Amino acid sequence: MSTAATGVWGRAEQQDFRSRVRGALLGAAIGDALGVGVTALTAAEIQQAHGPDGVTDLVPAHGRRGAITAATQLTLFTVDGLIRAQVRRDTGAWHPPTDVHRAYLRWAATQRDWGPDERRKDNGWLACEEWLYARRDAPKASLLGLGDDTLGTLDSPKNPTARDGGALARSAPFGLLVGWEPQLVCQLAVECAAQTHGHPTAYLSAGAYAVVVHGLARGETLDAAVQRALAQIGSRPGHQPVTDGLKHALGAVRQGIPSPSRVAALGEGHHAEDALSIAVYCALVAEDVRHGLRLAVNHDGPSHVTGALAGALLGALHGETALPPAWLAELEGRPTVLELADDFAMEMTQGPALHNPTATSPGWLARYPRT
Questions:
Q1: Which residues pair with 61 in a beta bridge?
Q2: Domains contained in the chain, CATH given
Q3: Whole-angstrom distance, CA of residue 5 vs CA of residue 279
Q4: In whole angstroms, what is the distance from residue 305 CA to residue 297 CA?
Q5: Which of 62, 107, 293, 318 could bridge across to 67 with cysteines, CB 3.0–4.6 Å?
Q6: Where are the strands (E) in the chain, listed by range?
Q7: What's the average model confidence in pLDDT over 319-346?
C-alpha cells in the first residue's frame, strides 16, 4: 500500500484498509472470546469437556457466550491512544509512547472504578463505555505496570521479569500504522510493551508481532511479513528466543498436516515468544479463519491469548468478510469494536480533513481529546 506513506489514498485502497483494520480488531476479539472459556484447561481437559475435537464453537465464560477478556480491552485502548497521538501531533506534542501510556492508564482506571467518571474531561468516548469496566482476567504485570503514572521505558522497564503474552496480545494495532516504516512500528510496539512487560522476549515478541500485522495490512503474504519481522528484531539484544520461535513456526508448516501435537511442539504459550510462534503457525496453516482459530485455542496454555493473536493475523490477512458471522453475531462489544476500527481507519486515511494545525472538527476532538 505504497500510497499510504505519501498520504494519498484512493477510494479502493481506503476500503481495503478499513476491511483489514476491522478484520484485525474483530478477529482478535473473536479469538479472545473463543479461547477464554478454556484458557485455564490443558488440551486433555479441553477434549474431556468438549469432545475429541476440542472447542469448535464459542463456550460460555463470564456469564455469556462471546465474552472478551482484558486482551481485547487493552487492544481497544491501544487504538484509542494511537488515534489521540495523531490528533496531538498538530500541537507539536508528538510522543506516541506517552499517548498510548495515557490510554493504558485510562484502561487501568476501568479496573478500579465501577463506571465512567463524568468529571474527567480527558476520557473521550471509549473510556465512557460501561461494558469495558468489567474485570476480565487482566495479566498481573499489566495491572502492576499501570498501577501508577510512571512511564516504563526500555532503559527502565516495568516488571523486568514479566515474560507472558499480556503486552503481546494488545499489540496488533501498532501494525495497522501502514504509513509508518516497519522499523518505527517495531520500535513503538517494543517501547509500549515495556510499559508493563520488561523482559526482552516479551517486548521483542510484541515488536515482531506488530511488524507481521503491518506487512499483512499492507497486503504482503504472511510468510513475507514474518521474514520482515525476523529482520527487524534480529540485531536487538535478547532476540534469540523470539527469532527461534518464529523460525520454528515456519518450519512446522512443512512437517505435515496441522494438528494439536504440532502446536504443542511450539510451546504452551505461557511465554510471549511461544504464544507468538503458535499464533503465526496457526495462521500460516489455516484453511480459513474458523479452522485457524480452532487450532489456536485447543492447547495447554492461555487459549485466549493465542486465539486473539491468531485472530488479528487472519483478520488483517483476509479482511472482515472472512470472519465467521455466527461468532461475530455473539461477540461482546462488537458495536464498540467496529466503531473504533472505523474511527482508526478514518483517522489514518483522512486525518487532515478531521484536524490540522489551524482547524479541528469539534466532534472529533470531543471523541479524542488532546489532553
A1: 64
A2: 16-367 (1.10.4080.10)
A3: 28
A4: 8
A5: 62
A6: none
A7: 98
Q: How far apart are the first and last CA of the chain?
A: 32
CA distance 167 to 193: 5
Taking the model in full, what pTM does it have? 0.96
d(CA 309, CA 210): 10
Q: Phi and psi (nearest 5°) for 360?
A: -140, 140
User: What is the residue type of 93?
Assistant: A
**Helix axis angle, 303-318 to 272-285, nearest 10°:** 40
Q: Has residue 37 got a pLDDT over 80?
A: yes
Q: At 61, is the secondary structure helix, strand, or coil?
A: strand
Distance CA 209, CA 177 (A): 13
Closest CA to 309 of 250, 251, 269, 265: 269
What are the φ and ψ backbone dihedral angles of 355, each rounded to 5 degrees? -160, 150
Give yes or no for a contact between 258 and 285, defined as CB atoms under 8 angstroms apart.
yes
Rounded distance between C-alpha atoms, residue 345 and residue 328, angstroms: 20
**Per-residue model confidence as pLDDT tens digits over 90-133:** 888 889 999 999 999 999 999 998 888 776 767 899 999 999 99
Count the neighbouring beta carbons within 10 Å of the beta carbon of residue 366: 11
Query: What one-character-per-residue DSSP string does 174-221 give?
Result: HHT-TTS-HHHHHHHHHHHHTTT--SHHHHHHHHHHHHHHHHHHTT--
Dihedral sign of CA atoms 145, 230, 235, 96 in order: negative
